[in-house]
Amino acid sequence: MEDLGRDYVILVFLSSIGVIQIAVAHAGLTKLLFLKRPPYAYALGLTLVIAGFVWFFWGGPRHVPDTAGGLDGNDQGARFALSALASVFFTVLATSALNRRARSHQTPTLDGLEALRDHTYLEALPTGLRSLWKERPPWMQR
């Protein structure tokens, strides 16, 4: 069962990274791409999704009920959530390292996801947090 659980984590992790790459290429968020050109990012994303499923199903059928040694629903749900979250963190950190520029002190002018067109996540994070702090509800202000 541990092999099945490990393979499921790899399936979700690879597929989630692939879906993220396809989505950010479609949205034009170039600083979240592993590859600079969107067509290559689409191809990478599709390849990762397919590779995840090939990895998972290569050893044979995996539709085993939990009563016969498969993953139960709670375990599968937890593994899915943690793997998908790990893929988001991996994408954000890896693309921030890959796409960082020489130390320019230019602060992002746009808020939200639009800032990721020209700035990496780690470059845009301080501006986003400042914006959230300024727009906090009155009951949070002193």
Give an account of the 3D structure.
The protein is mainly α and 142 residues long. The longest helix is centred in the N-terminal third of the chain and has 26 residues, at 2-27. Helix 1 runs antiparallel to helix 2 (38-57) and helix 1 (2-27) crosses helix 3. Helices cover 61% and strands 0% of the residues. It has a domain at 2-99. The protein has helices spanning 2-27, 38-57, 73-98, 121-134.
Instruction: Find the structural class using helix and strand composition.
Output: mainly alpha
Strand content: under 5%
Overall outline: flat
Number of helices: 4
Compressed to H and E, one letter per element, the order equals HHHH
Q: What's the gyration radius in Å? A: 19 Å
Distance between the termini: 53 Å
* Biggest sheet architecture: none
State the total count of DSSP E strands: 0
> How much helix, percentage-wise, in residues?
55-70%
**Uncertain spans:** none
- Whole-number average pLDDT? 84
